[in-house]
Q: What sequence folds into this?
């Protein structure tokens, strides 16, 4: 029986669980891949905004992945990008109209960032990198995983900024002058920088460091948290093999250069051997001549 390939965290590659955990930890779009950062920093002044923005993006991600996976063998490569944009824009329009009709306050809070989901790098990136190359079920769970990972990340950013900047949790007073005087946190001042753009970057940096720590702990426990699981290991092995082949080719090239140099030296050595042989032959002839002359003298005597 053929052994199944392993993906994120050692789970069977392209299984629903592997795709979901891949989006949460291994390829978290906000804290690992660092894509779709515009809404991640702009609308996360409180946790509620993060939840609604994340769920809207998850809806578009999951359904657009399914449709793109279904039409991947029909749409020619030359027009696949416009086709992806049309599919994504259709679901974003649906979300935009529903939120405008039934959640006007949240629609006003998120503003232009709802229609801008169309050009969110997370959605288009998963369509191009995964949905267009895999089946509908894995693509659906890939969208769910990436969407929930995005939702968790921006909700956490909003929660930290809200607590430290305004003293509330999901718009409920948590500390500061708004809480009861009997509370231990009554009068605790808020750090207003956290509701401003610099605060978003500070919280993001902290959460990225926390995610790196979580991945390191999982690695120490034998869980593969490399970006593409076993595929990343295969690519690394292929890169090492290519490097070895490159070194081997360089060594062979060097040997060939030395061989050419030896061939160039060979005629010179041949000439030297020829001259030495001629000298030895001439000397031998002279010795024979001298010996003959000596013998003739003895005979004449």
A:
């Amino acid at each position: 029986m053929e052994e199944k390939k392993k993906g994120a965290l050692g789970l069977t590659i392209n299984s629903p669980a592997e795709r979901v955990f891949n989006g949460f930890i291994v390829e978290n779009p906000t804290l690992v891949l660092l894509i779709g950062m515009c809404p991640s920093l702009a609308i996360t002044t409180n946790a509620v905004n993060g939840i609604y923005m994340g769920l809207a993006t998850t809806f578009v991600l999951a359904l657009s992945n399914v449709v793109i996976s279904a039409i991947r063998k029909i749409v020619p490569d030359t027009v696949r990008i416009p086709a992806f944009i049309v599919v994504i824009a259709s679901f974003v329009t649906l979300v935009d109209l529903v939120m405008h009709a039934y959640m006007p306050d949240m629609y006003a809070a998120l503003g232009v960032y709802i229609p801008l989901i169309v050009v969110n790098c997370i959605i288009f990136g998963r369509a191009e990198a995964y949905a267009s190359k895999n089946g509908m079920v894995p693509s659906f769970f890939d969208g769910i995983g990436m969407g929930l990972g995005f939702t968790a990340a921006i909700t956490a950013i909003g929660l930290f900024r809200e607590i430290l900047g305004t003293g509330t949790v999901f718009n409920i007073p948590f500390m500061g002058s708004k809480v009861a005087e009997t509370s231990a946190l009554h009068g605790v001042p808020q750090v207003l920088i956290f509701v401003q753009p610099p605060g978003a970057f500070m919280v993001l940096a902290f959460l990225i460091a926390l995610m790196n720590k979580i991945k390191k702990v999982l690695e120490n426990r034998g869980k593969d948290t490399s970006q593409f699981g076993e595929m990343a290991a295969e690519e690394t092995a292929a890169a090492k093999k290519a490097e070895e082949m490159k070194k081997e080719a360089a060594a062979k090239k060097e040997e060939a250069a030395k061989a050419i140099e030896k061939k160039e030296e060979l005629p010179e050595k041949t000439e030297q051997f020829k001259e030495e042989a001629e000298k030895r032959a001439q000397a031998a002839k002279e010795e024979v001549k001298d010996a003959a002359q000596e013998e003739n003298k003895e005979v004449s005597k």
Observations:
- The longest strand covers residues 168-169.
- Strands lie at 168-169, 172-173.
